[in-house]
Amino acid sequence: MPELPEVETIRRNLARTIKGKRISRVSILQPAMVKREIAPPMLAKRARNRFITAVKRRGKALLIFLDSPDVIVFRLGMTGQMLWSSPGRPVRRDMHTHVIIDFGAGERLLFRDPRRFGEMYLTGKGNIECILRMGTEPLHRNFTPVVLNSVINSRVRIKQLLLDQKKIAGIGNIYSDEILFEAGIHPCTPSCSIKGVRLGKLHKAVCLILREAIACNGDTVSDYRTAFNENGSYQDNHRVYQRQGEPCLRCGTPIERMQLGGRSSHYCPKCQK
DNA sequence: AGTACGCCCTGGCCGC
DNA sequence: TGCGGCCAGGGCGTAC
Fold it and tell me: What gap in Å lies between CA A150 and CA A139, rounded to an integer?
């Protein structure tokens, strides 16, 4: 499932391929995937003939900036993919391909999403923050232990808090489990009870795990692919995620799994207190 | 207001 | 072997 490291990998791929290019056509094959007030035909019309000035990311959202007041926002949900297709390495569209952005000369970007939890929309550049309403960017240099302390101010269990995009942007179910293991913190710990050394460890773990995952080009547990249709490799580095029953890599205790707020949570009962 | 939960969707996997 | 049913979960809407 695309979380911050996966979207960042795709962003870097697209910055190399589509930045500076002109959109010749936008084909919306599945109009239901286009959300918000601007209807699919209008979106296609407003994006047509526009140059792409930048490819950015905010949390798990991918932002394609146009040389107009508009920006195209993609949210990939659980199984969304952004696939780059060129004459040298063509990608064939299938029943799960919902949008095709053509650049001419056989170059195109495909938005695919089998489970259709993703979405696409067009909005004004000035509206982005207002629409996304996301919290702090964990890899930005202004994300400090002091900032982390200020957002973990509730009694909500830390696992659920890490998943709250309004608090910290971009962390999903895989990385929240991996971060809490790295920090040695039990997922049920009340957020506001994490102070001092433990807070420092948590801050360090957030930065470390996310950077490590980006270095791996993300985590392919199921559908995620880079924009070049390649697998990530972070799944080979899981300490706890989907390792229930297997020995903890640190102490050998079997990894446990529990439901927390409707999401599965994996942890070592001995290493995480 | 802050928190909890159900819903959307479909491929893959499990068990009979 | 085949098929029915259930599970995964990001983000939002609703309920309490």
Answer: 16
